[in-house]
Amino acid sequence: MSQFYRITQLRSTIGMPPQVRKNIQALGLRKRNQVIYHKVSPSIAHTLAKVKELVKIDLVNEYKTATQINQERKFKPGFQIEKGSFLKSSYE
């Protein structure tokens, strides 16, 4: 089973040197909070080392498509009633 890097761009490339901008573009990142997946390889690891201040890197076992990521972000329809002592203690 192959592993993947889950790469999220956290910071903008505004004001960065051209070399950093080119590495971010080579990874396929265009805007902040964008998530991409790459297979684990030495070339990708080297590129990530050059932009480590701008990205967040997680090691995952499965690749997710854009539609799967969007489905995870959506709220479940409807509502849920929570019973417990939280409401009682907060209003007393």
UniProtKB/TrEMBL annotation:
Keyword Transit peptide carried by entry: no
Pfam families from the UniProt entry: Ribosomal_L30
GO biological process: translation
Stretches that traverse the bilayer: none
Residue span, Large ribosomal subunit protein uL30-like ferredoxin-like fold domain: 5-55
Molecular function terms, GO-annotated: structural constituent of ribosome
Keyword Protein transport set for record: no
Entry superkingdom: Eukaryota
SUPFAM superfamilies per UniProt: Ribosomal protein L30p/L7e
Entry GO CC: large ribosomal subunit; mitochondrion
UniProt keyword annotations, A-Z: Ribonucleoprotein, Ribosomal protein
NCBIfam families named among the record's database cross-references: rpmD_bact
Membership in a protein family: Belongs to the universal ribosomal protein uL30 family.
Name of the featured protein: Large ribosomal subunit protein uL30m
